[in-house]
């Protein structure tokens, strides 16, 4: 019986990540289809609608938005809905958290050597972190508070979309050859991530 339970847990560890991933992808596809299919059916007619047209049009819209965002004025217009949400009491926290999470995972606004190994002052503990702010940015509030030899570093937590922001001396950080997305995946999985060693 004990061996059967072990096989059960082993099977769950194989199946559940696949099921959850596929369920999220399926939910996204169904949501896109539900939003855009009525639009195309109104134009083409229900009998001429081709399944998958909604997804294809969504991808095309995303490409066009990304392309048009090269121009400052249009980029400002695309960012306007987000600016409005950031001023709404209830949506502000939710939108900002999701937006920051996407920025963090994509590595947006991070310079080279942004992933570091942090040695806590007065201790031998080492943590993987992401440099989020450096001194010298006059229009940034946090940056203006940093001493010249200090950095603001985000320390992600394992199995949780959260973490700590610490301010440490530059002498306590060591750059790592890793992207922010890889650092987040490695840290949030508690080191269990199967990320491959980058080839040189």
- Overall body shape: flat
Low-confidence stretches: none
Number of helices: 6
Number of domain modules: 2
Strands of the widest sheet, in order across it, are: 4-3-2-1-5
In N-to-C order, the SSE pattern is HHHHEEHEEEH
Class computed from helices, strands and strand pairing: alpha+beta
Q: Helix coverage percent of residues?
A: 40-55%
**Distance between the ends:** 48 Å
- Largest sheet at a glance? 5 strands, antiparallel
Radius of gyration, in Å, reads 22 Å
Number of strands: 5
Q: Strand-residue fraction?
A: 15-25%
Could you report the average pLDDT, rounded to the nearest whole number? 80
Keywords: Membrane, Transmembrane, Transmembrane helix
Explain how this protein is built:
- It is flat, with a radius of gyration of 22 Å.
- The protein has six helices and five strands, in the order ααααββαβββα.
- The protein has 200 residues and is an alpha+beta fold.
- It folds into two domains: 2-106, no CATH class; 115-188.
What is the compact description of this entry?
By secondary structure, this protein is an alpha+beta fold.
Which helices and strands appear, and what pairs or packs with what?
Layout: H1 2-44, H2 53-68, H3 72-85, H4 89-106, E1 115-119, E2 126-133, H5 141-145, E3 150-156, E4 163-169, E5 173-175, H6 180-188
InterPro entries: COV1-like
Transmembrane segments: 7-28, 48-67
Pfam family, one: DUF502
List the main descriptive attributes of the protein structure presented here.
alpha+beta; single chain; 6 helices; five-stranded antiparallel beta sheet; 200 residues
């Amino acid at each position: 019986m004990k061996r059967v339970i072990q096989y059960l847990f082993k099977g769950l560890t194989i199946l559940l990540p696949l099921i959850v991933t596929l369920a999220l992808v399926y939910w996204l596809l169904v949501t896109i289809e539900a939003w855009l299919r009525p639009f195309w059916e109104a134009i083409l007619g229900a009998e001429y609608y081709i399944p998958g047209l909604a997804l294809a049009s969504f991808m095309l819209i995303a490409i066009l938005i990304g392309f048009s965002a090269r121009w400052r004025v249009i980029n400002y217009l695309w960012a306007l809905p987000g600016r409005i949400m950031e001023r709404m009491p209830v949506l502000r926290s939710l939108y900002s958290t999701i937006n920051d999470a996407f920025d963090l995972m994509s590595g947006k606004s991070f310079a080279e050597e942004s992933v570091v190994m942090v040695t806590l002052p007065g201790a031998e503990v080492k943590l993987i972190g992401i440099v989020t702010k450096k001194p010298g940015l006059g229009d940034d509030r946090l940056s203006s508070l940093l001493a010249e030899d200090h950095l603001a570093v985000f320390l992600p937590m394992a199995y949780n979309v959260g973490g700590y922001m610490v301010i440490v001396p530059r002498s306590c950080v060591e750059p790592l050859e890793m992207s922010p997305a890889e650092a987040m995946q490695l840290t949030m999985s508690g080191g269990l991530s199967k990320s491959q060693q980058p080839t040189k």
